[in-house]
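Q: How would the structure tokens look for this protein?
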Amino acid sequence: MHLDEMLEFNKQFIAQKEYEAYQTDTYPNKRMVIFTCMDSRLIELLNEALNIKNGDVKMVKNAGAIIRDPFDSVMKSILVAIYNLKADEVVVIGHHDCGMSQVDTDSLSANMIERGVAQETIEALEHAGINLSDEFKGFHNVEESVAQSVDIIRNHPLLPDGIKVHGLVIDPGTGKVDVVTRED
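A: Here is the predicted structure in token form.
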């Protein structure tokens, strides 16, 4: 089991005091919050490509770096980073070849049923007003998706004046970053 391997490694990590190299306080050194995709290719690449070290930024992730609801958990995290953790800049970073650009919600529902979710459960959710197609809808153009997330943040009624919000796209194969939108 992978968890057992990770826990065993952690014992050694602690015993050898390797954590000392990562000690920092709770406030981001660069006063920035980054909202990006949970794609595993970005775990180290994003930090290396943008020279981000431990303690530099607050990092918020979800599938596709998508915000659709201005009061979802991502936006709440961004606002907490701004108001309580001294962040004064927000960067949304999407990436090329994102799995959310290819989500087939019918196939996703079929996979749910195949893995044991009862068809009745899915139907009950639909009757309760939860549309799985809307909930799991991805995007076709990563730049447009990033711009949409940036727009929701920039126009949020609780965002204080002076907070700069930018949008970037990274190539997970090379680490090349392109600017979609920026505030100076």
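The chain is about 40% helix and 15% strand.

The mean pLDDT is 95.

Upvote if useful.
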